């Protein structure tokens, strides 16, 4: 897809920095952009359609990221947007300006 100059968006559950570094190494640093959607845990819990956070809080899902398993915030993402309080259109515009060619 890179040869076809397509932009591919992939959402990974990658709570550890080393996993994200590995993805950047595999894809190539010139073809990889780390987008960090910075969202407070309470907002994630309130938007949980599958009830995963509720299960984690009850103990039936012990390794849920952010509850029973740590999340390592990115140290230097290519872009960070705020998942609470920022209109989604504004976040999309910021991400698009990073990914889309100028002109």
Automatic annotation (TrEMBL):
Coiled coil: none annotated. It comes from the Bacteria. The keyword Kinase applies. Residues 2-81 form the APS kinase domain. GO terms for cellular component: cytoplasm. PANTHER family: SULFATE ADENYLYLTRANSFERASE. GO terms for biological process: sulfate assimilation via adenylyl sulfate reduction; sulfate assimilation, phosphoadenylyl sulfate reduction by phosphoadenylyl-sulfate reductase (thioredoxin). One of its GO terms (molecular function) is sulfate adenylyltransferase (ATP) activity. InterPro entries: APS_kinase_dom (IPR059117), P-loop_NTPase (IPR027417), Sulf_AdTrans/APS_kinase (IPR050512). This is Adenylyl-sulfate kinase.
């Amino acid at each position: 897809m890179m040869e076809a100059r397509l932009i591919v968006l992939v959402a990974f559950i990658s709570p550890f920095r080393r996993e994200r570094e590995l993805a950047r190494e595999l894809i190539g640093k010139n073809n990889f952009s780390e987008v960090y959607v910075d969202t407070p845990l309470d907002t994630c819990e309130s938007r949980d359609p599958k009830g995963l956070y509720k299960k984690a809080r009850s103990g039936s899902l012990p390794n849920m990221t952010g509850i029973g398993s740590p999340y390592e915030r990115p140290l230097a993402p290519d872009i960070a947007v705020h998942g609470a309080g920022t209109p989604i259109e504004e976040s999309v515009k910021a991400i698009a300006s990073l990914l889309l060619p100028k002109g």
